[in-house]
Amino acid sequence: MSTQLRNDDESDPQEAAAAEEVLKLEAEVQQMAEKLLEYRATLPDQLHSTLSSLLASQRPFHWPVYPLKSPDPKPGRLPGRMPKLELPKVYSLLVGLLLLNLHVLLKAFLAFVGLERTVEVEKIQLLKQKMSDNALTLPVVLKRMEVYMGKIEELASSDGVIHPAFKRKRVV
């Protein structure tokens, strides 16, 4: 009987410690749930205000407006036609603005959240590296695109004979 009493005495402090541990964990879970609800309530408003202030601080981009009929057409241009836009330059400008906006938004979001975990920081650094690599290869791609657009326009304007293998077969 004495061994049974000792086992009961030993289990009571262990059970009390386990119960105390469970109560601590439940309190921590409750605090985390409250913080999560608070973040869910405030984060969308803060992100919205950050985005709206960021967009409001930027100058708007206005597309050039060309009249359909010019009063005195230039000798090499037909009236009512738009001048040839340099698309690769426009694309590079737009992509540059997009990358800049993404970078600024990413910085603002990281500053707001305050990430300190190394795994997430490494992923973000990898994402930044990929974005900068893509931005560095963009001029090469745009140059290629410009060359091939010129070749396509050259082929479209030529009256050369197209080999029958490259003609579309009409389905009747």
UniProtKB/TrEMBL annotation:
Residues 15-42 form a coiled coil. The chain crosses the membrane at residues 90-115. Keywords: Coiled coil, Membrane, Transmembrane, Transmembrane helix. It comes from the Eukaryota. This is Uncharacterized protein. It comes from Sesamum angustifolium.
